[in-house]
User: Fold this.
Amino acid sequence: MFETAGDPPADLRSSTAATPTVATRTTLVVAGMHRSGTSLVAGVLAALGATAPKTLMPPTASNPAGYWESEPIVQFNERLLRSALTSWSDWLPFDMAAMPRPEQAAFAKLAGDLIAAEFGAQQLFTLKDPRLCRLLPFWLGVLARAGIGAAIVLPIRSPAEVVASLAARDRLPSADATLLWLRHVLDAERASRGRRRVFLAFDRVVADWRGALAELQARLGIEWPVELGRTGPSIDALVQASHRHHHLPAEALDSPTAREWAIGAYEILQRWAEQGENPRDCRALDSIRQDVDRHAALARELLAPFQAAMAELARERQARLTAERTLAELSAIHDQTVKTLLAAYDPLSLPARTRHALLERLVEGSGLVDEPWYLQQNADVAGARMKPARHFAVFGHREGRRPRRPPCFTRPLAT
Assistant:
């Protein structure tokens, strides 16, 4: 499951990484595709004593046993992806190097702060989020800067099962889900190449978690803080066949574009999980990844005008929202000023008719009352055939009636 294959490629070393110190702490980085058993693996590691995040994402119907991942770190990762106009469900590559250096440094600082907040000074902890597959160079750099060693666990599951699960949960089209699987597993493999890592077959964990964990422990050189005999029943509760809803071989994929790529990559990674890594297979994986990248480049070129238009629309909507809020604030100040003046006229020692005429002129000149709307909302005023400005000036402002429709805001477009 683990063999040294040389240093990671230079283009994958995080620009945020400093010269690493000797690591006295270790994180088990669970980097697997969505719906590939990453939550199961992280839950098992937590049961064995690898500290889980402080702020756990709550369970859902899709993961009733929990996700075992930090909610703030997941939100951070999604924000990091959005900075490049991408998201968790996008199979296009994420290029951290394209980000301005100051922005990279700011993200790296925030990521380091999140590690400290979520795990404190724990010696062994679990960092898990499927987004890590695409962001692994960044996070390995963050950990290195903090003097934390990384042992990487890469769960592998049949792409056909993952596609079926994503279709059921997110209605993701088969072609997109297959390419998403390829993006995650290929990026994670490339970024972790040459590091301390283990590929873990989802089928093996479900069928024989004790044997799978014994191999993982031996390959990674991890000493579990909790004895297996003490935590066995709790792990048995996590590893239930009833939690698995899809049993499909990779050959069941029906995506015409990416089917052969996915089958080829899965065969290699599944073999690595069972027999250990073979460096000669790296060339085949690199070839598949290059084909996927070329396909992504063509798709990006086709999507670029659409993404640019969406970004411009988001900026316009945000600007309009800001303008509307500013207008509403100014309008509220104006309205309050007029009402204050109206209240100041009430106690003046003037004949009622004179005072009412002054108030009416003040309201009419202020533009405070939307007369058609005021009549529509106040049937008694319309029935009395009274001028809206006069009614509001004499009675309405004291009775708390609205002079016009309250403002409504345009919602900003999510980016």
About this structure: Residues 10-277 form a domain with the Rossmann fold fold (CATH 3.40.50). The CA atoms of residues 355 and 391 lie 13 Å apart.
